[in-house]
């Protein structure tokens, strides 16, 4: 059986951590990072590869999920100095499940498209 494609994950809080755990449980290699290193420890203990920055996630995965608390966090994670778009590969699928301002999602989609990536807005609510 062919191995499953690694999935990048940025944002391991109340929603992101269980989502990343489900990926691991179902056999997907996970490459993860969070601004709080302690959030990464539990995932690392069950098999996730932890990296230092969103850019490092983008360097190692061509399917990346983000689950972040606010619009400014999304902007930083995607376009900041160590952001995903600094090292994103052409053809990468970026899925943002943050519940943020729709204008920010559109802005990130345009920025991703300029880099040859696809940005999908898939917010979680409730």
Automatic annotation (TrEMBL):
SUPFAM superfamilies, alphabetized: NAD(P)-binding Rossmann-fold domains
Coiled-coil features, chain-numbered ranges: none
Entry-linked InterPro entries: 3-OH-isobutyrate_DH-rel_CS (IPR002204), 6PGDH_NADP-bd (IPR006115), NAD(P)-bd_dom_sf (IPR036291)
Domain 6-phosphogluconate dehydrogenase NADP-binding, residue spans: 7-126
An individual GO BP term: L-valine catabolic process
A matching Pfam family: NAD_binding_2
GO molecular function, one term: NADP binding
Annotated protein name in UniProt: 6-phosphogluconate dehydrogenase NADP-binding domain-containing protein
Organism: Etheostoma spectabile
């Amino acid at each position: 059986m062919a191995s499953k494609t690694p999935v990048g994950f940025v944002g391991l809080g109340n929603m992101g951590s269980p989502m990343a755990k489900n990926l691991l449980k179902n056999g997907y290699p996970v490459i993860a990072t969070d601004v709080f290193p302690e959030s990464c420890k539990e995932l690392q203990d069950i098999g996730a590869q932890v990296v230092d920055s969103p850019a490092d996630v983008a360097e190692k995965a061509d399917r990346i999920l983000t689950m972040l608390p606010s619009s400014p966090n999304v902007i930083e994670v995607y376009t900041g100095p160590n952001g995903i778009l600094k090292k994103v590969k052409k053809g990468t699928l970026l899925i943002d499940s943050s519940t943020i301002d729709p204008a920010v999602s559109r802005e990130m989609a345009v920025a991703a498209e300029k880099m040859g990536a696809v940005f999908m807005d898939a917010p979680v609510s409730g």
